[in-house]
Amino acid sequence: MDDFLKYLTFPYLWEGAVIAVQLLVGALAGGILIGFFLALASTSKHWFIRVPVKTYIYLLRGTPVLLQLILLYNVLPEFGLRFSPFTSALLALMINETAFCAEIIRGGIMSTDRDQSMAAQAFGYSRTKEMIHVVIPQALRAILPTMGNETVGLLKSTSLASVVGVNELTMRGQAIVSQNFLFIPVLVASGGIYLILSTLLAGGQWWLEKFYNLDERARRARARLAKLPPEADVMSMQLPKRRWDTQTAAPVLEVDNLCVEYAGKAVLKSLSLTVRRGEVVVLLGRSGSGKSTLLKSILALTPRSSGTIQTEGHFMGSDENGRPLAARHLPANRAKSGIGIVFQHFALFDHLTALENVMSILLRVQGAQPEIARAKAMRALKMVGLQDFAASLPHELSGGQKQRVGIARALAAEPQILLFDEPTSALDPELVREVNQTMRSLAQTGITMIISTHDIAFAAGVADRVVFLQNGALIEEGPPSILQNPKTPAFATFLEHENAAEAQHANA
Ligand SMILES: Nc1ncnc2c1ncn2[C@@H]1O[C@H](COP(=O)(O)OP(=O)(O)OP(=O)(O)O)[C@@H](O)[C@H]1O
User: Fold this and answer.
1) Which residue is closest in CA terms to ligand 1's atom 10?
2) pLDDT tens-place string over residues 171-196
3) Dihedral over alpha carbons 190, 193, 194, 195 (to 10 degrees)
4) Of all atoms in ligand 1, which is nearest to the CA of residue 263?
5) Quick one: which atom of ligand 1 is closest to the CA of 283?
6) Burial class of residue 366, CB neighbours in 10 A (0-12, 13-18, 19+)
7) How far apart are CA 174 and CA 177, in angstroms?
8) Phi first, then psi: what are they for 440, rounded to 5°?
9) What distance in Å separates the CA atoms of residue 151 and residue 25, rounded to the nearest whole number?
10) Mean pLDDT across the chain, nearest whole number?
């Protein structure tokens, strides 16, 4: 026991442990950094990027790190690259780690919700901001446990550096044993030092997992919110104050001859639509008729084959001749559009509180000061009746509350036009009422709205104009009275079918 304790505190062994930690930290940092870019490249849509990266990962994952280390140590000098044993071992461990980290990070990125990425793009987030503020914080929760295992595995792999002469912990233990033959106390003490190091790593992993845990985030958010002064600084929102005569008001959105195809199948066919300031336009149509595609196209979220979309002279997703903008120009193009959107499945950022969700566009796209963003966001939450839920995370809200946060998020950015993509179809009937009520109040303010829905009664109550789509074409449009007197047989059949389904649902 005395020998064991002596070697457990033996400076010579701890100096070896420091070398092992240096190898660990260097290899892990390089592995994560390079692995992150490899993870992105391995999901590239270009095969000439994807295939070489996948091959690299395949080769490194499929061969022993010891072999790689010996190869690197002996091959680099052939090319005139002479490194110390420590640098060679560090390089070999790091290169091996890049492959494993790339796969762990790729798994984390793929586990994040695509709707949330699409929402970030719709709001005008750049790709980098989408990564930093939406994808990575959520991917981290999936990545951390696996990365913790990987780190402990790497700590143990540092012992392989001894084969090229790095005098780290294992090699030092062997050196002592070769002189005093005290196998058990020396080797057990070395093992004890590895255990102490891996316990510290496990502690770090536990802390990080706790830090990124959603309940912990909610607790911190509540504590932060409680510390803030009562919001005397609520901003007045720049919503339109009056209702325009929607028959004569100037157009704010002009969709001209829009054609969209998915895999060669026409989904929108030469669709043209003009929306005037303050108008509430309701899109109706069977499932698959192209309503969502039209709304997404307005925000340049779908590739279009021809046509233009403009909001008061600002062309969305193309130049004035309909030539598509390069992907790198789309975020700024969307950010300038003054168009907000509310999604069918809410697409709230899961890792952010209701308040942070509502602040997100103001902070990340509009570059607002945090205090101003907070005040505007609180104002928007008040408008939808959720000021008391500011510190709640999405998973702590009901479906109806989530959707009202989604509406507040779009409203806080003070859009000229608000798009609603079937905002109530993911909700239970009793929750539909609260969201419909919120939209009705908004319609009274005079904000321009385009709403895709299957709810005919709601359409009749809120619309200035009803637009009926079938198979991607605009078949009929007119005032809400066309819901009682459709002009085309297609619209009449659709209404008959929807009204029958509604009656059946009410009787059920
Ligand atoms: N990403 C996609 N890839 C391929 N096809 C798609 C894609 N998105 C939509 N489509 C197709 O485009 C057509 C129109 O879909 P869209 O979602 O716009 O219809 P919708 O009227 O909004 O339907 P719903 O009322 O069910 O939401 C459908 O045939 C759909 O299968």
Assistant:
1) 262
2) 999 999 898 888 888 889 999 999 99
3) 120
4) 4
5) 21
6) middle
7) 5
8) -60, -45
9) 9
10) 90
